[in-house]
Request: fold
Amino acid sequence: MEITAAEFLVSNTDVTKCPSPNMPEFAFIGRSNVGKSSLINMVTQRKNLAKTSSTPGKTQTINHFLINSSWYLVDLPGYGYAAVSKTKKASWSQMIETYLRQRENLFCTFVLIDSRIEPQKNDIEFINWLGKQQIPLALVLTKGDKITQAELGKSKKNIEMRLLKDWEELPPIFITSSEKMRGREEILAFIEKAISQNHH
Reply:
């Protein structure tokens, strides 16, 4: 898939105000500092499509981008920010949950995980929650250029072993590096395939 057009459409805290669900949608989510904005910019090859900021956890809204005038890329607020108050965290996760549950055009949620560290408790909880809700997901290991190939393999294995405690079948897992443009082709091919399979 070539990305010929990518534009920011709208930010929302209210799911009902999201663009009408008339096109396939792919969401990206992860814990703070996982490299989500960099990944979105890398996948779309637009330097500043998603705002990268020095303070992780800046995404506090559901952000819709229109890609190739044919599908939406959605940048979701992360989970697991220490710096956010309890009430804010509750309304946030409420917003994310409502979005994930209600968007009938959501084809896949990409859950980003830092390849350099063990999968965190809230990563696993979130992945399992998606599974229970039967929301299609794929995992994206980020920052793959920061560790050796061997460590990367081990990191992937760790996640698989951890998930197999609760899952019968593993979701797709992509290894990425925004610095090295790694994983871009695979993610776009996956999106393209998901769209074509659902369009027939």
Summary: Residues 6-199 form a domain with the Rossmann fold fold (CATH 3.40.50.300). The beta strands are 6-12, 25-30, 62-67, 71-75, 106-114, 137-142, 173-175. The chain has a mean pLDDT of 91.
